[in-house]
Amino acid sequence: MGNSGSAVKVCTDHQGGINWLSLSPDGQRLLTGSEDGTARLWSTADSQCHGHFQGHESYITFCHLENEAAFTCSADHTIRKWDVMTGQCLAIYRGHTSIVNRILVAKDYLFSGSYDRTARCWSVDKEKQIQEFRGHRNCVLTLAHYSSRDVLEEEEEEEEEEEKVSRDLLVTGSTDCTVKVWWVSSGRCYQTLLGHTGAVLCLILDAPNRELFSGSTDYTIRTWNIVTGEQLKVFKEHQGSVICLELVNRHLYSGSADRTVKCWLVDTGERIQTYKAHKHSVSTLKYHAGILFTGSGDACARAFNSKSGVLQKIFRGHKFIINCIQIHNELLYTASHDGTLRIWDIRGICKRNKRRLRKERSVQGRSSQKGRLSRLFNNRVGCMVQQENGE
C-alpha cells in the first residue's frame, strides 16, 4: 500500500487546464501549454514562472521546449516559436486548416499533425512550409521522426536513390487506424502499416532496432519493422484503449483506459508485470531509476517499483486528470487539467529504491558465488569418486 504525499509547491498561474508539459534538454526550464491560450516558462532551480507567452487565439494543445526556443501549437490552426529569454514571438507557422494536435522538432525541421488530416514540415528558422504529407483519411494524432541512416544498410539505401538528398523520415499515427511512414524530402509515403482496427493514439520508435511501437483504441500495441513494414508482434492483454507508451532497456510500458499499466518484454512479447491501483484511465507515464511514475484520470500520480509492481507512493492534490509528468533532479512535476503545475519531492522513494537495487545485486552476487562454490564442490566430489572407483 503506497503512502500519500503532498506537493512541495503548487503553481496556479494558468487560468485554464494544462494540456502539456515539456522539459528543456539542459533540464533548466519547463514549459506548460494551457487551455487559457498561453504558455508559461518555469525555472527548475526556483520553481518560479519566468516567462508568459501570449498570442494564440485559442487553447494550446501541445508544446515543446528547446534550450533557447519554445514551440506551441493551438486550436487556432497555428504553431508559434518563442524566444525563451525575452518571451517574444519569433515566428508564426500558418497553413493548417484545423486544430494542430502535435508538434515535433528534429534537426532544422518542425513537424506538425492536425485534424485537417495532414502532417506538415516547416523550416525552424523561417515561417516557411517545406512539405505537406497528405494521405490519411482522418486526423493525425501522433508523430515520430528518424533518419534512414539509423536503420538502412548501404545496399538498401541505394535502392532509394531518389531520396538520398534527404534521408529523414516522418512517422504519423491517425484516427483512420493506420500508421504511415513518409520521406520528408518528397512527401512520398514510404510505408502504410495496416493492422490496427482503432485510432492510433501513441507511437514510440526504436530506430537502432528498426522497430516502431503503436498503441490504439483497439486495445492493442503492435510492433513493426520500420524498414519492411512487417507487423512483428501484437500485445493483446489490455481491456481498454492504449493511451501512452514508454520504452526502457527493451521493456515496454503501456498505460491504458483499463486503469492499468503493463510491462512487456519486447523481444518475446511476454507480459511480465501489471501495475494496478488506478481508479481511472492511465493518461501518462514516465520511467525513472527503477521507478514507474504514472498520471491518471483519477487526479493522482503514483510511483511503482518497476520490477515488483508494488505501489510505493500516491501523490494526491490535483482535482482533475493529470495530462503530463516530467522528472528532474529527483523532483516530480505533474501538470493537470485543473490548471495547476505541482512539484513533488521524490528523493525518499528514489533512495529506498537505490538501496533495494543494491541489496538485490548483493543477494544475486552471493547466490552466484554460492552456485560457483557448489559446482566446484560437486566437481571435486565427482573426481574423488572416480578415483576411488579406479576410473
TrEMBL record:
The keyword Repeat applies. WD repeats lie at residues 11-43, 93-132, 169-192, 193-234, 235-274, 315-347. The keyword Repeat applies. InterPro entries: Quino_amine_DH_bsu, WD40/YVTN_repeat-like_dom_sf, WD40_PAC1, WD40_repeat_CS, WD40_repeat_dom_sf, WD40_rpt, WDR86-like. Pfam families: WD40. Keywords: Repeat, WD repeat. SMART domains: WD40 (SM00320). This is WDR86 protein. It comes from Podilymbus podiceps.
